[in-house]
Amino acid sequence: MREEGKIRVFLLDDHEVVRRGVHELLSVEADIEVVGEAGTAADALVRIPATRPDVAVLDVRLPDGSGVEVCREVRSQDDSVKCLMLTSYADDEALFDAIMAGASGYVLKAIRGNELLNAVRDVAAGRSLLDPVATARVLERLRDGNGAKDDRLAGLTEQERRILDLIGEGLTNRAIGERLHLAEKTIKNYVSSLLSKLGMERRSQAAAYVARMQAERR
């Protein structure tokens, strides 16, 4: 049952001690309610839609995947869930992935308790915690890295082009499969093929590529 006025928070971290510490930090606050937690990406993808939190605090590195992937999947189903990435490492690659997945914030585990509380409240209020300077640097690198390579699209089949556009819309493999009436495994094979042809390793790079092309057309 949703308590009026409280920020509903879900925690995802594979380290129980870290998870318990964050849980205790948040749950003593009058305006915050911890509605669920998980230690794996698979578990989180089941529990987050069921608990419908306002904010999901997600560990970036997990034994069965990444908090970034969880963020992308959750937000593709319900973009009202704000995601706050929690990580031990600060680097442009992780920041880039977080931006492309639609995360609202990105904080280090070394953060002080009151700063984490402020971060949760800011994200819940719809504010972005992504540093504008770092974000600009990542997006600039994107432009530099993808410039003058649009001819790679010529190597894609019509179906791969269609799937690339849907990746750009933020759809998951399952959602793309439903849209095109194909099995999820078939879509996964298409995605692997088109990423290989584009010289990319992750679908987040493909999503950014589509976004840049659309921006240039405007």
Model description:
By secondary structure, the protein is α/β, with parallel strands linked by helices. Helices cover 55% and strands 15% of the residues. Strands 2-1-3-6-7 form a five-stranded parallel sheet, sandwiched between helices. Strands 4-5 form a two-stranded antiparallel sheet. α4 (92-101) packs across α6 and α8 (173-180) packs across α9. It is globular and about 55 Å long. The termini are far apart. The modification 4-aspartylphosphate is found at residue 59. Keywords: DNA-binding, Phosphoprotein, Transcription, Transcription regulation. Residues 149-214 form the HTH luxR-type domain. Residues 8-124 form the Response regulatory domain.
Draw up the topology in text.
Layout: E1 7-12, H1 16-27, E2 32-38, H2 41-51, E3 55-59, E4 61-62, E5 65-66, H3 67-77, E6 82-87, H4 92-101, E7 105-108, H5 113-124, H6 132-146, H7 158-168, H8 173-180, H9 184-198, H10 203-217
Parallel strand pairs: 1-2, 1-3, 3-6, 6-7
Antiparallel strand pairs: 4-5
List keywords for this structure.
218 residues; alpha/beta; 5-stranded parallel beta sheet; 55% helix
Rg (CA only)? 18 Å
- Percent of residues in helices comes to 55-70%
Task: Kindly report the oligomeric state of this protein.
Answer: single chain
Straight-line distance between termini: 45 Å
Give the topology string: H per helix, E per strand: EHEHEEEHEHEHHHHHH
Structural class: alpha/beta
Strand content: 5-15%
How would you state the average pLDDT, rounded? 85
| DSSP summary, beta strand count | 7
Cα shape = globular
Total helical segments = 10
Low-pLDDT sequence parts? none
Main sheet: which strands, in order across?
2-1-3-6-7
Query: Sheet bearing the most strands, described?
Result: 5 strands, parallel
Domain HTH luxR-type: 149-214
Domain Response regulatory: 8-124
Modified residues (4-aspartylphosphate): 59
Protein name: Response regulator transcription factor
